[in-house]
Each structure stands twice: as structure tokens, then as C-alpha cells.
Write a structure and sequence with these properties.
The chain is of the alpha/beta class. Helix content is 47%, strand content 18%. It has three domains: 62 residues, no CATH class; 131 residues, 3-Layer(aba) Sandwich (Trna Endonuclease, Chain: A, domain 1); 57 residues. The chain contains 13 helices and ten strands.
Length: 279
């Protein structure tokens, strides 16, 4: 197994790591004995040049046999990538994460800048903090946010805050630009963003405070992780501005609009959503 090379989402090859697979499974909250069983089965089917998507699917299918809620949590990355095809559900999802942290949030705000108007994906405010957040959603994991993104974010931030700082209500505010993506940043994007004071959040950056860490800490899992919903049903719910498992728990009637009328089916969806949130 030490010589097996696998292909990552963006085409790079790396040696297969059993430890990485174990860590990803452990984030689902499943017991160690289940992790060992899943890893042993996946390893038995490994072959050189295997794509990470294939490995992930095998692990997910095996985990689902043990526990659907744990499997739902395991597919977090896939679930966030399914907050599409437009970027709007992802913006709502990021707004929900800020709201969980106690911020007042607005989405799709047209802000008057010093020079021109700008549409801000999310504005989050709490006490003296005032954040302007750009959400960069990509349908493919192979697409990275390069330096052009923080460059234009910084330009918009300068224009908007130049106007806001003239307003009495903003005199004592701490303004900051944020850039959040569901994939990754290039090294140049990270270097420039950090140099200019832009808070950068990607799937795995920064360590300990990444999007993955943020979601696991909050417990706000997207409804797209649920195994009891079809792709069509998930898309309908997203179009109705529902993005969280908790949205279903708090208002089960939204399932009727998705065409789910059978009470036993509704109960299965609710049960999975509740278990995912409680794990």
C-alpha cells in the first residue's frame, strides 16, 4: 500500500494515506471499530491511479451500511459542493454560519461605494465589527480561487468603506473584508489576502478555522448531506431558500412542497436530519 498513488480532484498524484482516510472517517463521529472495518475494505480494493472520488464513494457506501446519519456527516464536503448550481445557496449557508456566531446578517446587499455601487454577498455585524463577505462558490473541486479574487475584493472593499466611514454610525466600526470559498486558494491568493488584511476561509484553510472546522463546530450541516432526500428534492428545497438540516427540523411542512407527502418518508427524513445535528 505504501507505493499506491492516487489522483486528487485537481489532477495531482500523491501516495495513498491510510491515516488521512481514518481522519476523514473519524470526523463523522463513527466508532473506531467501524472506521477500521471501512478502511480495511477500501484498502483491499485500492489500485494504482485510483481517483480520490472512487475511494470516497466506496468509503461512503460502506459507512452508510453501518449508519446513514454518520454517512451523511462524512459527505460534508460533497454536500457543500452541492449547494449549487448557482452561488446563492452557498451565500445563505455562510450567512447562517455567521448568524450562529451571533452576527446580524444580510445577503445580496447593494452598497453605495465612493465611486460605484457594489453587490455584497453577505454583510455581518456584531458590536463594533462590520464584515463585508464575498462568497466564491465552485461546482468543481479542481477550481481554485486565484489572486484575481482577493485583488478585486480589496478594490471593492476600499470603495465601499471609503463611503461608509463618512457616516456617523460607522465612525467606531471595525471594517474587514472576508473571502469564503468551498474549494481552495492558490498560494499567491493566500499571500496577498493575508498581506492586505483580508480574512480568507476555504475548505481546509486556515488550519483549525477552516470552513470544514467551522461547520463541524457549529453543527450546521447542509441539507444536501441527507441520504434520505433525492437530488431533485434537495434542489427544490434550496430554491426555496432552505439550506440547513435544521430548516427541515424546524419546519417539516417544507417537505410537502418538495413532493414528500408520505408520513413514514417524512419521518425518515426528519429522523436522519435530527441525528445528523445531534452527532
Amino acid at each position: 500500500m505504501n507505493n499506491i498513488k492516487i489522483v486528487k480532484a485537481f489532477g495531482e498524484k500523491e501516495l495513498f494515506s491510510e491515516q488521512k482516510l481514518r481522519r476523514s472517517l473519524s470526523r463523522s463521529g463513527v466508532d473506531e471499530d467501524v472506521i477500521t472495518s471501512v478502511v480495511e475494505e477500501v484498502v483491499s480494493h485500492l489500485r494504482d491511479g485510483m481517483h480520490t472520488k472512487e475511494i470516497y464513494k466506496q468509503a461512503f457506501d460502506l459507512l452508510k451500511q453501518y449508519s446513514a446519519p454518520h454517512a451523511a456527516r462524512y459527505r460534508l464536503k460533497h454536500a457543500i459542493n452541492n449547494l449549487g448550481p448557482s452561488g446563492f445557496p452557498f451565500e445563505l449557508y455562510i450567512a447562517a454560519l455567521f448568524k450562529y456566531e451571533g452576527y446580524d446578517v444580510q445577503t445580496g446587499v447593494i452598497a453605495e461605494g465612493h465611486c460605484v455601487k457594489h453587490e455584497i454577498d453577505v454583510i455581518a455585524q456584531k458590536e463594533k465589527f462590520h464584515f463585508l463577505i464575498e462568497c466564491k462558490f465552485h461546482n468543481s473541486q479542481g477550481i481554485h480561487s486565484d489572486i484575481k479574487i482577493p485583488l478585486y475584493i480589496q478594490s471593492r472593499f476600499i470603495d465601499v468603506t471609503a463611503k461608509w466611514k463618512l457616516l456617523p454610525a460607522h465612525e467606531s466600526k471595525i471594517h474587514q473584508a472576508w473571502l469564503v470559498t468551498n474549494t481552495r486558494f492558490t498560494e499567491d491568493a493566500i499571500t496577498y489576502g493575508n498581506c492586505m488584511g483580508i480574512t480568507l476561509i476555504s475548505w481546509n484553510y486556515p488550519a483549525g478555522k477552516s470552513l470544514r472546522d467551522w461547520v463541524n463546530k457549529s453543527g450546521l450541516h447542509p441539507l444536501t448531506c441527507l441520504t434520505t432526500l433525492t437530488g431533485h428534492e434537495k434542489q427544490y428545497l434550496l430554491e426555496q431558500k432552505n439550506v440547513l438540516c435544521k430548516d427541515i427540523i424546524n419546519n417539516p411542512l417544507i417537505l410537502n412542497g418538495a413532493g414528500i407527502k408520505n408520513q413514514s418518508r417524512i419521518d425518515r427524513v426528519l429522523n436522519e436530519a435530527k441525528q445528523v445535528c445531534l452527532l
